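Notes for week 9. Today we move from apo structures to complexes. The key idea is that a small molecule is not decoration. When we ask for a structure prediction with pyridoxal-5'-phosphate present, the ligand SMILES becomes part of the input, just like the chain. The input block below holds both the sequence and the ligand string. Read it once before you look at the output, and try to guess where the molecule might sit.
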Amino acid sequence: MLKLDQHPSGRHFLQIPGPSPVPDRVLRAISLPTIDHRGPEFGQLGLKVISGLQQVFRTRHPVAIYPASGTGAWEAALVNVLSPGDTVLMVETGHFATLWQKMALRLGLKPEFISLPGTCAETGLPVAWRHGVNAEQVAERLRADTGHQIRAVCVVHNETSTGATSDIAAVRRAIDDAKHPALLMVDSISGLASADYRHDDWGVDVTISGSQKGLMLPPGISFNALSPKALEVSKTAKLPRAFWAWDEIVEMNRTGYWPYTPSTNLLYGLHEALDMLLAQGLEPVLARHQRWAAAVRGAVQAWGLPIQCADPAVYSPVLTGVVTPLGVDADAIRQLIHQRFDLSLGTGLGKIKGRMFRIGHLGDCNDLTLMATLSGVEMGLKLAGVKLAGSGVMAAMEHFSAHPAA
Ligand SMILES: *Cc1c(COP(=O)(O)O)cnc(C)c1O
């Protein structure tokens, strides 16, 4: 709850997996005076942020920027390349995959939603919500689609509701091995700039991303990275689109301008954030998230609580889902921690609401931010009466001491 009538001292700990903590440098850049979006300087800003984004997406092709949340960029991706009634293959990896599938339904598409069957014996949680995409399951469905009814395969790269990533290169191979012409569309809203991502190398046709996760910006702008094939398909796709249409945006972006008023001040912030990320280099940025994730997982394991992602090969570097014991309301623990320690943790979403909470380790964090976070969580778990096997805080301190940043 926003404490409008009181100001707690010190910084609030925003350890949810998006919006992530925004660096002061970025906030200061956003506070600069708004300029004429058709004036002479604007084009330079536009060209710089687009070229910086291309480096982060690892693409040579156009990246469209929308003044919208990530959900808008999901819609943009679907309406630019699909036609009414088209079948799309989507994979249930968690809450965000489910929301995207619901959007496809509302847009008049026919999403086929495949998932891993069953519930997990230890926790009672759905198996599909503890794993990434099973590329073999995708391959099998595509091989059976001999008439090529499926127009696109849509997957989530970093499922923010569970903390499981998916192997996008393996999904690409599944499409290629089946010699299937479907487009590959990937939501990397929370993966970009925190988890390894390669738009061109992995043969992705449309990548959807957003500002408020790994890019360390406030919410409000989102992206579509395109492939030449996606641009070609968009010329004949028939879903209605106007605001989201790529053609005019891509055309005007050649000189760094937009067909409408872009989010000027958020673009200042994007410029600053790209400067920070690219000056450090993407590899160290990715390594930093892996290191934080390993320390947080070490803490959860020391507590003796299950991690939401059940497959160590696809643990997310961006967030860790913590499963609470049966009968213990994860949201009550989150609320207690927020009240007592001014620390925000991510709530369980959809099918796993109340059964788990999420610790975000992305954005403007460092080792001690995460130590403070883990202290807050450990105190909260104890206050809520959860029996812990050991101290996660001690385990994380040991991890950080033994693994200095490269
Ligand atoms: C945050 C997020 C979204 C939704 O983005 P909004 O900005 O809330 O519209 C979609 N997918 C994933 C994987 C996300 O993490």
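DSSP finds 13 helices and 13 strands in the chain.
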